[in-house]
Write a structure and sequence with these properties.
Order of helices and strands: EEHHEEHHE
Radius of gyration: 21 Å
Strand content: 5-15%
Structural class: alpha+beta
Distance between the termini: 48 Å
């Protein structure tokens, strides 16, 4: 019987349609079975919950899709009365976020730190308009 070291991948790939359920393991780089404590059965490391990822992925996705418009606005900003923006869901509320916050997001380097992420999101929550209940937002 071979003893497995913790963190060593045993190449036990699981099918996505497995009745026990699977999750993607970043250590093994494939889908694997997991136990009740989110520990990968292949490498015996804890699998991170997808909901724990940053809330800035929505900003990143909007910037990626609309990079030209945002860069154009950064080169020649217009009056705040004519600003355009996108509806964004932060937490359980939908906010209308003007383009200047996306320009600020583009200019900030390495925004993944906890303090800078919280400060940026709190600034957006404090200064942006909350949309109505039935207005659709980008998740």
């Amino acid at each position: 019987m071979l003893v497995q070291q913790k963190g060593e991948c045993r190449k036990q790939k699981a099918n996505l349609h497995n009745p026990n359920g699977t999750k993607f393991c970043n250590n093994c780089q494939h889908y694997a079975l997991f136990d009740d404590y989110n520990i990968c059965e292949c490498c015996r490391l804890k699998i991170a919950n997808r909901k724990q990822h940053t809330q800035l992925k929505t900003f990143e996705r909007i910037v990626k899709l609309n990079r030209n418009s945002i860069l154009e606005w950064m080169a020649l900003p217009c009056s705040p009365d004519y600003n355009f923006g996108w509806p964004v869901r932060i937490g359980i509320l939908n906010y209308f976020v003007p383009v200047r916050y996306f320009a600020e997001y583009v200019e900030l380097p390495e925004l993944e730190g906890d303090d800078t992420e919280k400060k940026f999101l709190e600034n957006v929550k404090k200064e942006c308009v909350v949309l109505g209940r039935y207005m659709h937002a980008i998740k």
